[in-house]
Amino acid sequence: MHAVVTRVTINDNDAAESHLHEQVVPGVSQAPGFVAGYWTRKAGTGLAMVLFESEDAANAVAERVPSMLTDAVTLEGTEVREVVANA
């Protein structure tokens, strides 16, 4: 299993949350190999961890991350990581 970890700065909380619920979550959850996704926020920042069955599936979504965002957030980084344990 692999995770796409994305960090953003939130510029407009209401617009960012609306876009997240209306566009990002439905789109990502339909991606091939999707397992689960978690989107979090704290003090004007957001961190998402979205799990996929394979590295290829995770890389495919990671490449699409910049095109999924609006100006309500600023992308700080995206990376694919291997999941080595879960509970």
Description:
This protein is an alpha+beta fold and 87 residues long. It has helices at 13-29, 55-68, and strands at residues 2-10, 34-42, 45-52, 73-82. Strands 2-3-1-4 form a 4-stranded antiparallel beta sheet, covered by helices on one side. A hairpin with a 2-residue loop joins strand 2 and strand 3. The two termini are 13 Å apart. The mean pLDDT is 97.
Distinctive features:
87 residues; alpha+beta; 41% strand; Alpha-Beta Plaits; 2 helices; 36% helix
Tell me the fraction of residues in β-strands, as a range. 35-45%
* Radius of gyration, taken over Cα atoms and rounded to an integer in Å: 12 Å
Label the CATH architecture: 2-Layer Sandwich
The total number of structural domains is: 1
Distance between the termini: 13 Å
Largest β-sheet summary: 4 strands, antiparallel
Strand segment tally? 4
Q: Structural class of the helices, strands and pairings?
A: alpha+beta
Morphology: globular
Give a short synopsis of this structure.
The chain is of the alpha+beta class and 87 residues long. The chain has two helices and four strands, in the order βαββαβ.
Would you spell out the secondary-structure blueprint of this structure?
Blueprint lengths: L1 E9 L2 H17 L4 E9 L2 E8 L2 H14 L4 E10 L5
Antiparallel strand pairs: 1-3, 1-4, 2-3
